[in-house]
Amino acid sequence: MSDIGPSTLGGAIDTGAYNKDYSSAALQNLDKDAFLELLVAQMRYQNPLSPADSNDFLAQAAQYASVEQLENMSQRQAELRSMQMITVATGLVGKEVTGISELTGEQITGVVSTVRFGEEPVIVINGADSPLSMVIQVDTPQPTPIATASEGSQASTVDPADGG
């Protein structure tokens, strides 16, 4: 059995596209620690007779700083999104909401009584759980006039929306 290689195929194998695709896919999954390890390994094992150019080293250090800043931004953005979801979910308590039940997949409508926090906030509508992302509609009930006793025996109504 003979080996198949460039010499047996007339040298017509193009491995450049394969290596390029493989390298870009591998680099997409690097975090800042892996990037730093690669940079240190490159410096440790460089050829002492042909050391790396200082401009190349500075460029790689700048890339490392960029990777670190992008990772920090991504983390902060995830934290901000989480806080926004918490704010929205707690703002729904006491409001009439239509959502999809987590257990049955059916549409449920009612007043939100509770919010539970986990990976994603879950609101409780009429005793059924619905993830915040499955809310379809939010209705704000109109304020009802409050009857109050005034001077004499006449009753008047006060609209809370008017402030008094």
Offer a quick outline of the entry.
This protein has 164 residues and is an alpha+beta fold. The protein has helices spanning 16-28, 32-44, 54-91, and strands at 96-100, 107-116, 122-125, 128-131, 135-139, 146-149, 155-158. It is built from 3 helices and 7 strands; from the N terminus they run αααβββββββ.
How big is the Rg? Answer: 32 Å
Strand content: 15-25%
* Tally of helical segments: 3
Q: What is the approximate shape?
A: rod-shaped
- Summing up helix and strand content along with how strands pair, one would put the structural category as alpha+beta
Q: Span between N and C termini? A: 96 Å
> SSE string, helix = H, strand = E?
HHHEEEEEEE
Strand order, biggest sheet?
A: 4-3-2-1-5
**Largest sheet composition:** 5 strands, antiparallel
Mean pLDDT: 75
Helix content percent band: 25-40%
Strand tally: 7
Low-confidence stretches: 1-22
Descriptive account of the structure:
- The chain has a five-stranded antiparallel sheet, with no helix packed on it. A two-stranded antiparallel sheet has the order 6-7.
- Helices cover 39% and strands 22% of the residues.
- It has helices at residues 16-28, 32-44, 54-91; strands at residues 96-100, 107-116, 122-125, 128-131, 135-139, 146-149, 155-158.
- The model is unreliable at 1-22 (pLDDT under 50).
- α2 packs antiparallel against α3 (54-91).
- The chain has 164 residues and is an alpha+beta fold.
